[in-house]
Amino acid sequence: MARKGMDRFTPRAGIADILDEPFSPQRDRDPQRPGGFADMRILELLTARLCHELSGPIAAINNGVELLAEEDPGLGSSANPAFLHDAVALIADSARRARSRLQFYRFAYGFSSGSATAGSAPHEIAIGFFAASRIIGDYADGIRMLSPDRQKLACNLLSVGADALPRGGRLVLTDSPLTLEAVGEAAALSPETREALILATPIAELNARTVQPYFTGLLAKGLDLSLIATADAGCVRLRAVVAGNNLA
Fold it and tell me: Which residues contact 150 (CB under 8 A, 6 or more apart)?
């Protein structure tokens, strides 16, 4: 599959590139210079978000292991088959959720232009990410034919859309142009999220809730696209259009 588009997240340096650059106090005091405070702030917040996403299923795995440890035949009682079955089921389900989230964020955050995609296809990763949740994902066939860079943007749009569905609902990805519809009860997009999507939020004011849409806006910018957000009753729509084309 041909790859095209994003070679960087910012005009001059990628977020991951900060790890290979020497520390410069003067550079890092400038919040608007790529590779300095800006990249570090985004990196820190994305890392915090990833850890938060994984903490739930990992904690559940730990709970399941503790339950198994408590059901110890050596304590003088026979193991309860039903109890053991429930504990093993809890561990297995939590492990699947942790794996699905790791796969999703590895692609959504970690894939870079020119890298080879390994493992499951992006649409399979996205569908697995929302499995057993209150959100149903619809990843159109046309999206599956896009370059990995644009599918990375699509996966990040899914993450933004999921945050817009606090009570669950349906996420629908379509192409021409790349569009996400988040449909559900109480579907809404906050003013802070809108500003982050168009990169209007100052770096220093980003937080755990706005870093995802801001990062999504950076990906769109790297592909020479602009994000347009509209909302109706029960539906939030995000479109990625050619930069400069701001028609609603």
Answer: 5, 178, 223
Q: Give Cα 215 distance to the centre of its chain.
A: 9
pLDDT in tens, 122-171: 999 999 899 878 999 999 999 999 999 999 999 999 999 999 999 999 99
Pairwise CA distance, residues 156 & 158, whole Å: 5
- What structural domains and CATH numbers belong to the chain? 16-242 (3.30.565.10)
pLDDT (tens digit per residue) in 195-207: 999 999 999 999 9
Residue positions counted in the chain: 248
Q: What residues does 225 pair with on adjacent strands?
A: 242
CA 229 vs. chain centroid, Å, equals 18
Query: In this structure, are residues 77 and 53 in contact, taking their beta carbons and an 8 Å threshold?
Result: no
CA distance 64 to 87: 5
Distance CA 125, CA 150 (A): 15
Helix axes 148-163, 81-110, angle to 10 degrees: 120
Kind and range of the H or E run holding 99: helix 81-110
